[in-house]
Amino acid sequence: MARFPWACPWEYVKQINEIKNLFNEVFIEAIGPNAAIIEKEIEGEKIYAYYNPNLAGFATIWEGDEIFLHFLFIKKSERRKRIGTALIKALLEYYKKPIKLKCLIKNKNALAFYKKLGAKECSFGESIDGPYVLLSIEKILDPTL
């Protein structure tokens, strides 16, 4: 049975190496070969991890005027097991407000996942990693994902 999720500042994460490894693996796959340094990327954010029973995925959230999902990374072997949906559902229930996120347009799988969940397009932009769409998730339309 899955344990879900807990949140804490980066310095209190007990499984730092597991999360670093997963971050590097998925970052390279989704964004490109120049993996970022996770500690710099998520400074000031909260980490929500999903265990099944080992680390299966995590999300990072920036809390401000809006709730911003910075990263949602699921281990390749754990995909299509509703872990991403469980993380987003828990975040929506916890924060009780819409979640905003940017998704690179070239990341077709992630974009399709968010849209099936019910994410609405807010705007488009350009980043150093390429064009992106700003999305907002207010509620999950398809909980079977």
Walkthrough of the structure:
The chain has four helices and seven strands; from the N terminus they run E-H-H-E-E-E-H-E-H-E-E. Helices cover 29% and strands 36% of the residues. It has one domain (3-137): Aminopeptidase. By secondary structure, the chain is of the alpha+beta class. Mean pLDDT is 81; it is low at 1-12. It is globular and about 30 Å long. A seven-stranded mixed sheet has the order 1-2-3-4-5-7-6, with helices on both faces. This is GNAT family N-acetyltransferase.
- Give the proportion of residues in helices: 25-40%
Name the poorly predicted regions: 1-12
Largest sheet: 7 strands, mixed
Tertiary shape: globular
Series of secondary-structure elements, N-terminal to C-terminal: EHHEEEHEHEE
| Number of domain units | 1
How large is the count of helical segments? 4
Strand order of the largest sheet: 1-2-3-4-5-7-6
The CATH class designation is Alpha Beta
User: What proportion of the residues form beta strands (DSSP E)?
Assistant: 35-45%
Give the second-level CATH assignment, the architecture. 3-Layer(aba) Sandwich
Features:
about 140 residues, alpha+beta, Aminopeptidase, 7-stranded mixed β-sheet, 7 strands, about 35% strand, globular, disordered N terminus, acyltransferase activity, transferring groups other than amino-acyl groups, GNAT_dom
What secondary-structure arrangement, pairings included, does this model have?
Elements: E1 3-9, H1 16-30, H2 38-41, E2 46-51, E3 55-63, E4 67-74, H3 83-95, E5 99-104, H4 108-117, E6 120-127, E7 130-137
Parallel strand pairs: 4-5
Antiparallel strand pairs: 1-2, 2-3, 3-4, 5-7, 6-7
